[in-house]
Amino acid sequence: MSKAPSSEDTKTNVFEYARKWGENPLPPTVLATLITAQHARPLQKLPMVFAPLFLFTSYMNLGGYKTEAAGTSAAWSALYMLLASRRKQSIKSTFSVRGVVRGATMATCAVQVAGGALAYLT
Fold first, then answer.
1. Each residue of 80-120: pLDDT tens digit?
2. d(CA 28, CA 84)
3. How far apart (Å, rounded) are the C-alpha atoms in residues 85 and 79?
4. What Pfam families does this protein's entry cite (predicted)?
5. Longest dimension (CA), the chain
6. Structural domain spans, the chain
7. Confidence (pTM)
8. Which residue, among 32, 77, 28, 33, has the nearest Cα to 57 in the 3D structure?
């Protein structure tokens, strides 16, 4: 007879999932790819600074510094979200390919901030 999961088990699983996301080297690499896709043509210098930084956090993570890489990636993701949210976007351009990539980048940054901060703090 199996026991139904309690709400505490569910909360623990959500926190564990977020922590594993923060310690994973793949999300910073995906962020670097999405940022490059958005800002390479035409070249925008300031946002393109973030791509090598995210690749470096993936390198740190693969080098065994999971906690430090999670904190660094969370901090850079928060800074990129802050800078990207300042750009205004019309409703018409929200549903273009560029708008969808921008939305995916912002969503991935938000999840990375939460997961990376949780992994760094615990």
1. 999 998 887 777 777 888 889 999 999 999 999 999 999 99
2. 16
3. 10
4. Aim19
5. 61
6. 24-121
7. 0.83
8. 28
- For residue 2, pLDDT over 80 is answered with no
CA angle 12, 15, 19 (to 5 degrees): 135
- For tokens 């007879």, the residue is 1
Query: pLDDT tens digits, residue range 17-47?
Result: 989 999 999 999 999 999 999 999 899 999 9
CB 109 within 8 A of CB 28: no
CA distance 49 to 95: 26
The set of residues, in sequence order, having a beta carbon less than 8 Å from that of 93 and lying 6+ positions away, is 99
